[in-house]
Amino acid sequence: MHIYEGFLPWQWCVLWYVLAIPVVVYGIIKIKKVTDEHPESKPILAVAGAFMFVLSSLKLPSVTGSCSHPTGNGLGAVLFGPAVVSVLCVIVLLFQALLLGHGGLTTLGANTFSMGIIGPLAAWLIYKGWQKGGWSILVGIFFAAFFADLLTYVTTAVQLSLAFPIPTFEEAMVKFMGIYAVTQLPLAAAEGILTVVIFDYIMKLRPDVLDKLGVLELAKKVGKIEEPKEAV
Amino acid sequence: MDTKIAILLVIAAAIIIAPLVLYSGLTEEEGFFTGSDGQGPEYLEEQGYEPWIEPIWSPPSGEIEVLFFSLQAAIGSLIIGYFIGYYKGLARRREDEVDEEVSQTSK
User: Fold this and answer.
1) What is the domain range of residue B85?
2) Which of A48, A76, A74, A73 is nearest to A144 (CA)?
3) A159 and A12 in contact (C-beta within 8 Å)?
4) Shortest CA gap B105–chain A (Å)
């Protein structure tokens, strides 16, 4: 999903920066608020960021014969909301742009928009809707992470098709979706599973923090789960 | 580790191993296992597009690139492992304290 340095005309770089910056700024404010109100959520925030760090460093083979990397953006989105993930995403993307020559500074806005905003937003909405339906929390986490990963890549395909509608936007879309989104399908499933595993750990070990973050609030309202026991 | 988690991890591993078995013997020379991140720019260059700016720094060799990728994974794993381990320790201590109270009150 990384658009490389120089592979997006500057007008598009500016546009994606303009769209991404307000979300990142809001995310920074939100991080400050959450960590002030609930300092015990800091380690969970670190784990959410670390999860993105690990997953986006793993280039995995897909059944299409290409390799691609997962994004790890679903976990943080479910726990803290999409704006917070956009901040974590900027950190990950800066590391990769500066030390790996992977992604770029001019394309940072566009890459943050896909991996830090659209993907996490999808995860957050799916998870909220899923809880309202009263279905299994962990299955909801799977789908949230699956679509966060997939839609990150779909967004990249859309961004490139808009900038390079060769010969038309539709045909460019077919080409870029083939490269990015199709390869991503099995990897998004793997990411969904890994996100379930780590979320399950957090839910078992620190239900009190999840409770404070309001992660299980909707599920409780529809009677899906019991009130978590107070940690001593 | 409970069985549900173990089964999930096996499925995730199977998803990743499947392509390696499926295309066993094929390499990047036949166009396999190349990165989708690189295919986009490659296609654009075929269309005659030239990047208008170069990265300010990029790893001078594949080895250095692997170094930083490994570092990235290591930093992430360290943080996750540290806190999950810490939380597990806390949970264990809570259990022990409850056990102690129970044994004391029963005396």
Assistant:
1) 58-107
2) A74
3) yes
4) 18
Right CATH for A10-221 from 3.40.718.10, 1.10.1760.20, 1.20.1440.20, 2.115.10.20: 1.10.1760.20
How far is A87 from A23, CA to CA, in rounded Å? 8
Burial of B47 (0-12, 13-18, 19+ CB in 10 A): exposed
CA-wise closest residue to A216 among A192, A195, A231, A199? A199
Closest-CA residue of chain B to A200 = B5
* Amino acid identity at A218: L
Give how far the C-alpha of residue B75 lies from the chain's centroid of Cα atoms, to the nearest Å.
11
B64-105 residue pLDDT tens: 999 999 999 999 999 999 999 999 999 899 889 888 888 887
Largest CA distance in chain B: 84
Please tell me whether residues B47 and B71 are part of one structural domain: no
- From A59, A64, A89, select the one nearest A74 (Cα to Cα): A89
Q: Which among B11, B40, B71 has CB closest to A193?
A: B11
Q: Which residue of A has its CA nearest to B80?
A: A47
pTM to 2 decimal places? 0.94
Q: Decide if B73 and A58 are in contact by the 8 Å CB cutoff.
A: yes
- Virtual torsion, Cα A157, A160, A165, A166, nearest 10 deg: -90
H helix or E strand, kind and range, residue A61: strand A60-61
